[in-house]
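Example 579.
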Amino acid sequence: MATWSGIVFLLVVGLLAVDAADPWWKTASFYQIYPRSFKDTNGDGVGDLNGVTEKLEYLKEIGITATWLSPFLKSPMADFGYDIADFKEVDPLFGTMEDFENMVARAKELNVKIILDFVPNHSSDECDWFIRSANGEEKYKDYYIWHPGFVDEDGVRRPPTNWVSVFRGSAWEWNENRQEYYLHQFHKKQPDFNFRNPVVREEMNDVLRFWLGKGVDGFRVDAIYHAFEVEADEDGNYPDEPRNDWTDDPDEYGYTHKIYTVDQPETPHLVYEWRQILEQFQADNGGDERILMVETWSPIEIVMDYYGNSTADGAQIPFNFQLISNLYYDSDAYHYEYLINNWLTLMPEGKSANWVIGNHDKNRVGSRFGADRVDLFNILLLTLPGCSITYNGEELGMLDGYVSWEDTVDPQACNGYEANYMDNSRDPARTPMHWTDDKYAGFTNGSTTWLPVALDYAQRNVKKERGVSLSHLNVYKRLQELRKEPTISGGAGEIKAVSSYVLAVKRSLSGNYVYISLFNIFDSIENVNLSEVFSGLPATFQYTLITDKSIKQVGDVVSAKSVTLMPHESIVLRSTTTV
Ligand code: NOJ
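Predicted structure in complex with 1-deoxynojirimycin:
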């Protein structure tokens, strides 16, 4: 007898099918570029916009629809560009506005869409708005969150609350000029905007319109869940956050339980407003749908609010970080199944899924899950229903680079201690991209790089992997070919753990071949009977994608009743008959 959960699940699966009129982003392959580390064309050891332009053809080669670029706007680089001093100017380190325009023009020629990183939560303390705010200029006075703090019984001035910065230490910094504290949820050089001030909101809306006018196809919205803090009381004061009991270190971000500084109920509505701006721009100027991809490390139910509500559309792509936040080296196939289906089940009706496994803030996939699982994650991301988001270098299986304490530059690590800097540093995932086995991995012609090049660049680089038939790069390219199949781009999806060891993703579309991706997560040899897992399956399948773990060849036929997987092997099978 059918259970309720079974019926709900089938409904969800049915809804995942995509129809031909769907917008471009629904099944797009996104690629995140961290420009500092992508390609340097002027020899200063830092990647630049001309470097991105030069490599757009590479994006085309690997089947990318759109790229989101970490910030390249005017910045003192305290947080490597996430501290913006001018929201409408390119930083000279990355090039000029003309370079940006050339990049957009070339991307349009190649039909690669460009997504800008929009950083609304904070500016740099060197931003003109902040300087004027600190000077108390009327218009700018309330652009940021200011408070005089409190003088204690010993006559010592104390910050307004116990709030802690993500990068350690109090989230409040004293400003001599204004004689008040300002809030910074990240670095002290990243003061938080006051989004309760309508003028700030308009200022940010204007930033969006500016870049839309320059031809971008959308925005990745940075740290959105920090945008609002709890409203001040009638005396202008803010409450302390409750303590967490697992650390006594008041400088550690985890010292307080975040109930007033993130995930305030107003925040998704900001995104709804921005969506309106994008829609209006499209209505006025035509072209394809402009998109919002939002970064929020919130509980999944809250993430879902960013899709929109019954009256307003939100972001097309609220980043799905479930596989980053909740999947571990030892997680079994049931855990994978749960995380994937949980997103699909909670996703509001009519919305589309996205899958992310790495970015510039997290250790490399191969370093977190093991180099043996690189293909497994690429195959998973690219054969699940919805859009995939790949961080640059993951298509090569790049691993974390070694960055000594002396060479460490990430403020999240530098604000802490040498003893545990590796736990906090984001530098290892940001080392330069490996293009060739030349000096500096072909990243620069100069004589230095802003972070050291990872030592294994001669083994893992674009040039070499192009020439090895089952390299990670070629598996990735083959996956992009498969994504053109109607079943994979638009078919329904069913995700099931076959056992603790093996995960299966079935994609089907009436009148087409059935595709099944299989993932042997651990290091044992496994045999699976797919007919027991999925009902109504064709009897035989062909290998359509293999990896270097496989002992079979593409085209080999196998019975659905008995598929053998080698340790860590992932494959894609295609039915020999259509359904
Ligand atoms: C999230 C970004 O991904 C990260 O790199 C940055 O440090 C913070 N937001 C602050 O902007």
